[in-house]
Specification:
- This is RagB/SusD family nutrient uptake outer membrane protein.
- It holds the Pfam family SusD_RagB.
- By secondary structure, this protein is mostly helical.
- It is 43% helix and 7% strand.
- The strands form five sheets. The chain has a two-stranded antiparallel ribbon with strand order 1-2. The protein has a two-stranded antiparallel ribbon with strand order 3-7. Strands 4-5 form a two-stranded antiparallel sheet.
- Helix 10 packs across helix 14.
Length: 477
């Protein structure tokens, strides 16, 4: 019987991030066999918490979250990050290897829950199905991020391009001969959509409390992630329909925050901050209860201290007069520890110096703009598309008036405004790079060869697979 290490103390998911802040470092006597872990509801929930923790580590670790902005005109950055912007990153780069490993660790934990819960569970079938459905959303999220980062042409409607290895069973190690080549983009996308569709009936609309509703998988977050996936696949009618599923839950479950500082609150004291109803899925980092824990969102050092990133003045100038996103969500950050960037500005979305801010993963503003874009692409200039645009824009530009259909000569004009609104609204949340690529644009206007709009496959993975896993074309010698 195989064994699995349980991570963290017993917990009831009161705080997914706080209660499980350990790595696989337990002594042998702390290990449990699979039947013990997945036979019990509480132990399975602990394993699920571990999967959420590892997804959090993957999403926010190393360059995974920030590359969506620092490789674009949104940010200026330290010279350390030049290699990711100009395509000179080597295939053996430690950062790239870390991103790959972190996501596959989360996927493997999800796979264990999906497979072994069905084998060993001795508790209510409905709860088993819910845990499996949550694990499938974790797996889907991880695979979508991997495709964005590594899939050759995945964002450019090239279904036959090579994506990533599609591991759907618990990984037993390369010594077993279980080496999986890269699946096509289409195959990986199909699995993501299946993971976000097939178990929908098993996901709740809400969990037992509001914190869990906004930090664990629900019907709403699954539909929203499906909308994002369809958008990246250039399946715009499907994206519009999936987004509509979410918007039907307004205002009962989801609603736009009226105040940006409720959405991204000042957090100098590092105390727990509410996840307001705009969040469909977020990592509740501020709910860490122990001041001594090492767990943080990995973003404050780069953003708050401006050691790595600061906002391009040209981007700041794009915000219209009176735009609250510029007035409230852009600030100086720390000016003591990095005097070289004393006068530069940074994002207020991560304003706690210890990295204890909550991290947005999916929020309603994105879903609204996804439906607006999808409608503009499929139906042209419509009243609904313009109304959706206004809902997001008007929150931050209260005195600017609203758009009408007469303001747009054609769908192209409307799309340009929607995409600019996405850029401003979702800035520093890791979207802009991928919005540019899926629209056939350089991540940054620097002439980067198209083959390097994705990261290289880590050389270690190629080597240990004996070449079964192959490199992206842009990084072949």
């Amino acid at each position: 019987m195989k064994k699995i290490s349980m991570i963290g103390p017993p917990l009831l998911l009161l705080s997914l991030l706080a209660a499980c802040d350990k790595q696989l470092d337990l002594t042998p006597e702390d290990t449990l066999v699979d039947s013990q872990v997945f036979g019990s509801e509480l132990a399975t929930e602990q394993a699920l918490a571990d999967a959420y923790i590892n997804l959090f580590r993957a999403v926010t670790g190393n360059i995974a979250y920030v590359i969506g902005d620092f490789t674009t005109e949104n940010l200026q950055h330290s010279v350390f990050y030049d290699v990711y912007e100009d395509g000179s990153v080597v295939t053996a780069d430690d950062g790239v290897q870390s991103v790959w490993q972190n996501y596959y660790r989360a996927i493997n934990l999800a796979n264990n829950i999906i497979v072994k819960t069905q084998q060993y569970a001795q508790y209510a079938a409905a709860k088993q199905a819910q845990f499996i459905a949550e694990a499938r959303l974790i797996r889907a999220y991880a695979y979508l991020d991997l495709l964005k980062l590594f899939g050759d042409g995945a964002l450019m409607d090239r279904p036959d391009g090579l994506g990533v290895p599609l591991q759907l069973m618990p990984f037993e190690g390369y010594d077993t001969g279980d080496i999986i080549p890269r699946s096509t983009n289409a195959q990986v996308y199909a699995q993501i959509i299946a993971d976000l569709t097939e178990p929908m009936a098993d996901l709740p609309d809400r969990h037992s409390n509001d914190l869990h509703t906004r930090s664990r998988a629900t019907k709403g977050s699954a539909a929203a992630l499906r909308a994002r996936t369809w958008l990246y696949m250039h399946r715009f009618e499907d994206a519009a329909a999936a987004a509509a599923e979410v918007l039907q839950s307004r205002p009962a479950i989801y609603q736009l925050a009226t105040n940006l500082l409720d959405l991204f609150p000042p957090n100098s004291d590092g105390q727990a901050k509410t996840l307001v109803p705009e969040y469909l899925f977020a990592f509740p980092v501020s709910h860490i209860t122990s001041p001594s824990t090492s767990l943080n969102n990995n973003l404050s050092n780069g953003y708050f201290f401006k050691r790595s990133f600061w906002i391009s003045p040209a981007f700041i100038s794009m915000f219209g007069s009176g735009d609250l996103r510029a007035q409230q969500l852009i600030f100086k950050g720390d000016s003591i520890y990095n005097p070289d960037q004393f006068g530069e500005r940074t994002t207020f979305k991560f304003n706690n110096s210890n990295g204890r801010d909550n991290v947005s993963v999916i929020r309603l503003a994105e879903v609204i703009l996804t439906r607006a874009e999808a409608l503009a692409r499929t139906k042209g200039v419509t009243g609904e598309a313009v109304s959706l645009l206004n809902q997001v824009r008007s929150r931050s530009m209260k005195d600017a008036g609203t758009y009408s259909v007469d303001d747009f000569e054609n769908p192209t004009a409307l799309l340009a405004v929607i995409l600019e609104e996405r850029r401003k609204e979702l800035a520093f949340e890791g979207f802009y790079r991928y919005d540019r690529i899926r629209n056939g644009q350089f991540p940054r206007d620097n002439g980067l060869p198209e083959g390097k709009w994705v990261l290289p496959i880590p050389q270690r993975e190629i080597d240990i697979s004996n070449g079964v896993i192959v490199q992206n074309p842009g990084y072949l010698n």
